Amino acid sequence: MNDTALGAIALHLPDNMRGSIMKAFYTLNDRKYIRVHTNFPLHRHGILSMLGLPNSSDITRDQVQEAFKQWDASAFEEKAVEFRMCAFTLRTFDEWDNHPQGLAIKNEPPRKVSSLSSSCLHPLANNKLLDLSRVLAGPVAERTLAAHGADVLLVTSPNLPALPDLDVDTSQGKRTTQIDLTLAEDKEKLQRLIFDADVFLQAYRPGALEGKGFGTHEVFDSLVQTATGFNAAESQAYAGFQRSLVSLLRPKPFPVQALDHAAGYLLAYGVNVALCKTLTIRGWLMGSSLAAVAQWLRSLGRVLPEVGFGQAAKPMPSITSPPDLEVSDLSSEWGLSHTSSDGKIMTALKHAAILSETPVKEATAPISLNSSLPEWLPLSV
């Protein structure tokens, strides 16, 4: 997304969510690496508390690194799980394959569809999809389904922090509303929406919604990359190509959130399969696991290092205005508004799948997480 094209709209994360410790690798006492996610204030505060550091915007990466030297990787990882924080040890593929979690998902498919019980312009028109997901696979899946005609209503809580840069991009074609599940009347609103929904997608951590009478599931892409060995493998391949031992000292993350986007598209595909199956049997449960998607991506094999990192490898295009030609060819313009007449424009990547007879919907993307009433649109004819 080209930030310059946003014009006068200030779509920026709050200062306390752009700290220097966000999405960082750190070296521990046993010389292993750990990766932390501190996208949201709750996670940042929790990691700092575990390290015995104050929750201050003045905390530097060097201070955090020094505090991490007091920990071994496995001990911090176990403590992070206990505190429900996002932190995982960097592992090689072999280490992940022999880890209890790696063994548990060894034969897990990247998506699952199972039964729960016994012509339009867009193929998903008149399907009502309730989206209770955040960062990043779930929003990508529902954005894809919205592009093919579904009425996707994104429901968020006014009590949780937002990620405006990501939210506006992954909300293309959706409507947005906010519901406070601490209020009895808002719980009833969500129950009414669920009653009429064709698809209910939620991606909160286990137990988060069950305690309020609803469902649950959450994973974090970069943490799964780290735990399953991708970052270690990328680092080793790059080091072999450069013939430099120094390169082995730093993990090499993916340049994009590959697991999230792959899982999102697989999830969208699975929802389509489930909707087709409801023609004969009503009610299907669709699931997608980032760890299982990581296993599947590994099974596809990897290119040689000289192909991935050498002269044949095309560098990532720079963020410029106007956009790089490669980016502009893959981009489309969206109106940013509550209505279609506000005149503000966002440049974003085109949808991945564009059908020959039923073009994807490209119109407006809400810049607010509360742009619509919590109700479904009338059926189209």
Automatic annotation (TrEMBL):
MF (Gene Ontology): catalytic activity
Pfam family, one: CoA_transf_3
Transmembrane stretches, start-end: none
Similarity remark: Belongs to the CoA-transferase III family.
Designated name of the protein: CoA-transferase family III domain-containing protein
Annotated source species: Lentinula aciculospora
